[in-house]
Amino acid sequence: MAAGAYVEFARKAFAREATYRMEVFTLVGSLILRVYLLRSLWTALYAQNAEPPGLPLHSMITYATVALLMSLVLEVDGTRLIRERVREGTIATDLMKPISVPIYFFSDGLGQTLLHALLIVPSLLFALLLVHVDVPPPQTLAAFAFAFLLGYGVNFFINFLMNSVAFWTLETFAMQLIVRWGSDLLSGQIIPLMFFPGALGRFVFALPFAAVYSTPLLIYVGIIPASQWPRYFFIQACWLASFGLLSLWVWTAASRRIVVQGG
Hints:
The chain has twelve helices and no strands. Helix content is 77%, strand content 0%. It has one domain. It has helices spanning 3-18, 21-48, 57-74, 80-88, 91-96, 101-130, 138-164, 166-169, 173-186, 198-206, 214-220, 229-262. The protein is mostly helical and 263 residues long. Helix 1 crosses helix 6 and helix 7 packs antiparallel against helix 11.
């Protein structure tokens, strides 16, 4: 099928998400409140403890604010349609259509993501009224954007794998909840991974979750210098390729399972 069809899928997902205007406004409002609370939290923590080397208070507030803005995009899970279609039984019909079903799910999620990406603009403007956010040089912004795209791909395939388990279990909520809690803590979204000591710090940096949030954020605030960007990009690319190949294998096995069940 032509690429234009998948663009149309993304456009329809964007329009579908945009119809829930009250939910959109609520999302922006809740994010602004979270920015304010995080600023207050980190200000209090820094006032009561020694300032960690390399990450002064204004950088920590910038880190937390950018992490929240990233979450607007990364918490969109278009692959949840897999679980829903499997439970409804309509996944069999999807597999008979002349489309690549995984790319369709990616396109649908991308459409939702684009709307949430647009919400970053008003959210950032309101956040700037509450906190001081550092803006790095253009070269660093470009590196951050590239790392963010790689992290987005890793995050997509992690969600894809979790929802594909529904072909065997029908329900994936408990597993996704556990992985979500682990990801929130171990990805650097809430606490910078550099705060984890010794062997624990090396362990959490070695997990794939670090490729989603921690790498782009540490590039943004300057903890990862330009000389080390290629190394971290390579690690992200390896995770992306690994999860992509694993997703292909799981999807192939799941598709055959549907054929067996139907035949």
